[in-house]
């Protein structure tokens, strides 16, 4: 049986919370967990922004401000996610960025579950919520099926490549200069 979109969104929230807990308690698995978090969070956010938020804004125009705020919170979390993906999972900075992301996502989840989802339950009939659940699930599946974007090389990786290629002055170059010097 297909679940309604509200149940699916809340299940995603619980899933992300579990990943956050694993990131804290399983340092040896952090690279894989960050990749899982990135895939699931991005798919969830894109599906909400493409399908769910527009449906709510149409059904309850007074909720447009909340919808816009939800999108802004997704973008804030995505910026933190990008920092988390670049952070060395064995360094203290990783936990600092993780704590910032957990705080931002918890805030978003609390607002969404206390304001947006109840507004959706009031404004959209049950059969439409089920249909929206199918569309949301499909949009997430399509996002998850996309190949991951290649991770940018770190400055350290670029320095090592420049050294191997014998590029003069590589040690004093910025990351952008290294990319240019390496011709990539």
Content-based structural category: mainly alpha
Question: What's the N-to-C terminus distance?
Answer: 49 Å
- H and E string: HHHHHHH
Strand segment tally: 0
The general outline is elongated
Low-confidence runs of at least 5 consecutive residues: none
Radius of gyration, in Å, reads: 20 Å
Q: What percent of residues adopt helix (DSSP H or I)?
A: over 70%
Number of helices: 7
How many domains, in number, for the residues?
Answer: 2
Q: What's the rounded overall pLDDT mean?
A: 91
Strand content: under 5%
Main sheet properties: none
Domain Hemerythrin-like: 5-119
Domain Rho termination factor-like N-terminal: 156-182
Protein name: Hemerythrin
Pfam family, one: Rho_N
Question: What can you tell me about this protein's structure?
Answer:
By secondary structure, the chain is mostly helical. It has two domains: 5-145; 152-184, no CATH class. Helices cover 79% and strands 0% of the residues. It has helices at 5-25, 30-59, 64-86, 92-123, 126-145, 155-165, 175-182. Helix 1 runs antiparallel to helix 2 (30-59) and helix 6 packs across helix 7. The longest helix is centred in the middle third of the chain and has 32 residues, at 92-123. The model has no long low-confidence stretch (mean pLDDT 91). InterPro entries: Hemerythrin-like, Rho-like_N. Residues 5-119 form the Hemerythrin-like domain. Residues 156-182 form the Rho termination factor-like N-terminal domain. This is Hemerythrin.
